[in-house]
Write a structure and sequence with these properties.
Blueprint (H helix, E strand, L loop, with lengths): L1 E5 L6 H12 L3 E5 L5 E5 L2 E6 L2 E2 L5 E4 L6 H13 L3 E2 L3 H7 L2 H11 L6 E2 L7 H7 L5 E5 L8 E4 L2 H14 L3 E5 L7 E8 L2 E9 L14 E4 L4 H14 L3 E9 L2 E8 L5 H6 L3 H12 L12
Parallel strand pairs: 1-2, 1-6, 6-7
Antiparallel strand pairs: 3-4, 4-5, 8-11, 9-10, 9-11, 12-13, 12-15, 13-14, 15-16
Helix pairs in contact: 1-9, 2-3, 4-7
The site of adenosine-5'-diphosphate (ADP) has 23 residues, from strand 9, strand 11, strand 15 and strand 16.
Length: about 300
């Protein structure tokens, strides 16, 4: 098959691993920098241009769109979808995951556990916002943050209100969330391929940071999921319409709570768990690309 990995960095570890596994299995694979693609739009004639040529003969795209380029990247991906090219993640599903408010609403609707979350404008009663989120300490997170940037732990009601006011002044949209203290700087990443968990790790912050992101100095180690955790991860993936994704959960006293679903999960998990997720993705593509990409039925 002709597989295109939509990625800005051919040197990126995840991209390299996908190329390796696709070649190992005999596919014709290339890395396409979607940031340099452009499209021509005419009635019933979707065209994608790259390096001075039309991209016509691609069977499958594996999008690895950076969050800083979500809008442009998903527009290019949408053009592939209009041409009937199979994709491991639809543009609409990627857009869904990049907005924490929209994603949290969809996850809540699906019935998986989530930390109680409040979304409000500055005209709201800030005292009540704090009460509704369970009181201090609580988490305030920027709606479009990634890698732990823009996630703040406010220890007191006053601190929480000061952070909210600062965000309002800057016009930044944010969520206020119940703080799950018992997770103690750790979370669980479940890597899902074809709707099933294929690898899982626990990420732990190595200092007193409450954030476990590897980008904030956290470290991963393999972890065995409980049945409920596995089912929760798979349900969250289905709710977001993402057959390939990374589901992040907190272990809380009331069971697993889903924090977010990542549409371009990193392959660092291979190093920590010894599972070959690259191969699993290429196998998934082989088994599914003959069909059309499943219709998006999330409805939000
Ligand atoms: N409600 C919460 N309670 C406790 N810890 C949290 C909570 N929300 C986030 N965290 C911690 O902060 C990290 C980053 O939060 P997350 O919502 O995943 O944002 P990002 O998209 O920036 O990774 C999580 O991995 C987790 O360790
Ligand atoms: Mg995260």
């Amino acid at each position: 098959m002709k597989i295109a990995i939509l990625s800005q960095g051919p040197g990126n570890y995840s991209t390299k691993r996908l190329v390796e596994e696709a070649e190992k299995r005999g596919h014709d694979v290339r890395v396409i920098n979607y940031a340099k693609c452009y499209v021509t739009i005419e009635s019933s004639k979707p065209v994608i241009r790259y390096e001075g040529q039309d991209l016509n003969d691609i069977d499958v795209v594996i999008p690895r769109i950076a969050s800083s380029l979500t809008k442009y990247g998903t527009a290019i991906l949408r053009q592939f979808e209009l041409k009937g090219v199979f994709t491991t993640a639809r543009s609409i599903a990627i857009n869904r995951t990049r907005d924490k408010l929209r994603a949290t609403q969809i996850l809540a609707q699906s019935g998986v556990g989530i930390p109680k979350t409040v979304f409000a404008r500055e005209t709201a009663d800030l005292d009540d916002v704090v009460v509704q989120a369970g009181g201090a300490p609580l988490i305030i997170k920027v709606a479009r943050g990634t890698h732990g940037n823009g996630v703040v732990l406010a220890e007191t009601r006053k601190a929480a209100q000061a952070v909210m006011q600062a965000f309002y002044v800057e016009g930044v949209s944010f969520l206020v969330q119940e703080f799950i203290g018992e997770a103690a700087g750790s979370d669980i990443r479940a890597f899902v391929v074809g709707g099933k968990v294929v690898a899982s790790m626990k990420r732990q912050s190595l200092d007193d940071d409450f954030r476990s992101n590897l980008h904030q100095g956290g470290e991963g180690k393999p972890v065995k999921l409980t049945d409920l955790e596995r089912k929760t991860a798979q349900k969250a993936a289905r709710a977001m319409g993402l057959p390939v994704c990374g589901v992040d959960m907190l272990r809380s006293e009331r069971g697993p709570l889903v924090l977010e679903v990542n549409s371009s999960p990193g392959f660092g998990i291979e190093k920590y768990t010894g599972h070959n997720v690259g191969e699993k993705i290429i196998e998934y593509v082989e088994q599914n690309a003959k069909r059309q990409t499943r219709k998006d039925r999330v409805g939000a």
